[in-house]
Amino acid sequence: MAGDRHFVVEMERAARIQAAVNSAPVYVYQFGYRGKHSLSEEISGTNIDFGAAHADDAAFVLQIHYHNTEETQQDKDMSKVLVDIWSSFSRNGNPNPDAPTFTWEPVTPNGAELAYLYIANSSHFEMRSSLDLGHREFWDSLPINEPQINVNVRNIRQSTREEL
Q1: Which of 38, 90, 127, 147 has an alpha carbon 20 to 30 Å from 120's alpha carbon atom?
Q2: Tens digits of per-residue pLDDT, 16-72?
Q3: CA-to-CA distance for 35 and 71, rounded, in angstroms?
Q4: From CA 32, how far away is CA 103, in angstroms rounded?
Q5: What is the C-alpha separation between 73 and 46, in angstroms, rounded?
Q6: 10 Å Cβ neighbour count for 135?
Q7: Domain Carboxylesterase type B: where (predicted)?
């Protein structure tokens, strides 16, 4: 629940804003793969499987102390897939690998639904879309007293053009 509030809602908001104001495509993914180890072990002090945790994906690309991706073949395969995705994006701005087994669609500027790639494991990728990923409407309805920038992304592109 806190993950929705602090990560998913703000990621969705940022992706929609970036897609509305940039000419470069914006790609979003949700990482659903829980490897042999997870950041949740470090945080909880247990090895209970809470599913994929925030930043678990980074452990498959970067060497991170809490996660050894060489212990299982499934983790090695996931590491290869994510390195291919991140490398492809850094080379040409498109995260679809050279030999894709999936098609990753960018966020549609000013679209009602947010398109994103769900990564279940190294061989299961699925395009999904959501009107309210992370339950943004619920979180925005609460009287949370924190600095917020409320942006109507549907109007950004038009106002940006008028300013230019």
Answers
A1: 90
A2: 999 999 999 999 999 999 988 888 877 788 888 788 888 899 999 998 877 788 889
A3: 10
A4: 17
A5: 23
A6: 16
A7: 2-139
Q: To the nearest 5 percent, what fractions of the chain are helix, strand and coil?
A: 40, 10, 45
The neighbour count for residue 162, using CB atoms within 10 Å, is 7
Query: Which two tokens mark 75?
Result: 């983790």
Q: Is 34 helix (H, G, I), strand (E, B) or coil?
A: coil
β partners of residue 119: 31, 125
Could you identify the residue written with the tokens 């983790």?
75
If we measure between CA atoms, which residue out of 16, 1, 34, 43 comes closest to residue 129? 16
- C-alpha closest to that of 27 among 142, 92, 114: 114
- The rounded distance, in Å, linking the Cα atoms of 89 and 39 is 25
Give the rounded distance of the alpha carbon of 14 from its chain centre: 11
pLDDT tens per residue across span 95-126: 988 777 888 999 998 889 999 999 999 999 99
Residue of 35, 65, 67, 64 lying closest to 52 (CA atoms): 35
Beta-ladder partners of 64: 67
DSSP string, 120-153: EETTEEEEEEESSTT-HHHHHHS---S------H
